Amino acid sequence: MGRPKYFTPAEVSLHNTISDNWVSYMGKVYNLTPLLQEHAGDVLLKPIIEFAGKDISHWFDPKTKDVCAEENMTEILQRYLKYNAHAASYTWKYMGTNLDMSQTLEENGISEEAEEFYELRMDADQYTPAIHLYFNDDLTEL
């Protein structure tokens, strides 16, 4: 058995096309070019194509190595609190409907539209569904 090969992030980043696609994952480098060739045109490959030449470890839970589950609204709120300490007192709505904070975006009817954008050749980064936060006077600053 030969010596293991090591690649720097700069070396991996050179392989960033559909015809030459490498990614790094949990400290290892994978050539995904054969996968892309075998399933050419499949919309499900879009994230792999977009992250060609990059690290995708953040897609996975480091302990289980499973794909990370979507956060529920309360988990999103917890991340948002460092920017706005009053966020927990707001009413969170989408399309005029109160969001259930124990559910994910998908469970609240906010669907992932990346596949439709890809099929329509639209830039998904140009559209973000708006979640409206309605201020409830919590009287915390008297």
Mean pLDDT: 83
- The global form is elongated
Strand content: 5-15%
Describe the sheet with the most strands: 3 strands, antiparallel
Widest sheet, order of strands: 1-2-3
The count of strands amounts to: 6
Instruction: Classify the helix fraction into a percent range.
Output: 10-25%
SS content category: alpha+beta
Instruction: Give start-end ranges of low-pLDDT stretches.
Output: none
How much is the radius of gyration in Å? 20 Å
Q: Tell me the number of helical segments per DSSP (H or I, 4 or more residues long).
A: 5
First-last Cα distance: 71 Å
Return the string of H and E elements.
HEEEHHHEEHE
Entry summary:
The chain is of the alpha+beta class and 142 residues long. 21% of the residues lie in helices and 15% in strands. The chain has helices spanning 9-13, 33-38, 46-50, 73-80, 114-119; strands at residues 16-17, 20-25, 28-31, 91-94, 97-98, 132-134.
Question: How are the elements arranged and paired?
Answer:
Elements: H1 9-13, E1 16-17, E2 20-25, E3 28-31, H2 33-38, H3 46-50, H4 73-80, E4 91-94, E5 97-98, H5 114-119, E6 132-134
Antiparallel strand pairs: 1-2, 2-3, 4-5, 4-6
